[in-house]
Amino acid sequence: MTSLTQYADAAPHDVQQHLDDFPAIAAALAPHGIVLERWDASAPLAADASDADILAAYAGHLDALVARGGYQSVDVLRLAPDHPQRAELRAKFLAEHIHDDDEVRFFVEGAGLFYIHAGGQVHALECTAGDLIAVPAGTQHWFDTGARPSFTVIRLFTTPDGWVARFTGDPIAESIPLYEGVAA
Fold first, then answer.
1. FRET pair for 134, CA 20 to 30 Å: which of 36, 72, 97, 180?
2. Within a 10 A sphere around the Cβ of 86, how many other Cβ atoms?
3. What is the pTM of this model?
4. Can you say whether the dihedral through the CA atoms of 144, 150, 154, 157 is positive or negative?
5. Per-residue pLDDT tens over the stretch 110-161
């Protein structure tokens, strides 16, 4: 289930609020330019669905989003609990960073935790299957796959370069609980 835990950035271990209501979560993130939507697949997907099958199942939603946001590149990323580089991939995303591009992800299956540092808070958003999140370019954030990642996401980019991070150097990500601590 999608959830949001908000921490004060001045006292990062202090939980200010926890929300499980999807409309309330979307409303709490909207003032920071974060878009959070729920999508349904147009067709059921098999467990062994190809990337093309996944993109076809969400084509209507994706076409509308591409037109709305000017996205030029769309792909599918899968990360499984037994991935041999799961620890390195997790570490890659755990430091606070920004992008010159929006970070747009649709969770086809599984879950992951986005941390958005905005408005004097850290918003720890657990995205689950059916969630679309769009983090505007220049927004400080990081992402935790969890120790045993399990998700499939569709990613959209406005540039062919895709995911290019500029790390802020702010150590706040080290002060907020990892996925296992937030989701507990």
1. 180
2. 18
3. 0.93
4. positive
5. 999 999 999 999 999 999 999 999 999 999 999 999 999 999 999 998 877 6
